[in-house]
Amino acid sequence: MLFLYFCLCHLVCYFMKEIKLETKVRIYPFSELPEGERELAEAALKATGQSYAPYSKFHVGAAALLENGLVVTGSNQENAAYPSGLCAERVALFHAGHQYPDIPVVALAIAAVTNGHPVESITPCGACRQVLLETEQRYGKPMKILLFGAKEVVVAESAESLLPLCFGAKDLT
Fold it and tell me: What pLDDT is stored for residue 109 in this prediction?
């Protein structure tokens, strides 16, 4: 009986598979960002000023760069009836998708301010990551993501890199 148990455990382990997921990002001091990316990050930081965040006091701005060079911004909009508010990333991307449905988003910068100062680091929530991914898939092109922090900017080459093992349109067929 002990021998059979050992054999079954061995079979289970034999079929187990392990994968390693990696994400590459570049980290820049703000001053070393290429000029166009620096301007996009500044637009996201400026958009924090239009945030409505009376509850969290966490003001987030996003700036989407469209393929035609147009920049569309958004900011978080809170509501006392959580989760009725909306994150800055989704405000910007949904506005861009509505106003310019045939123009791909090529980059999105995100910034956050609290107590009048930029935060050390910012990253999109899970719901926003899913919307970033869907936007990227919608246009069939990677969308660069710039995460503006107080001391540095983290740059990911695609939204998909922020959401490994992602769920998308391909999973609905």
Answer: 98
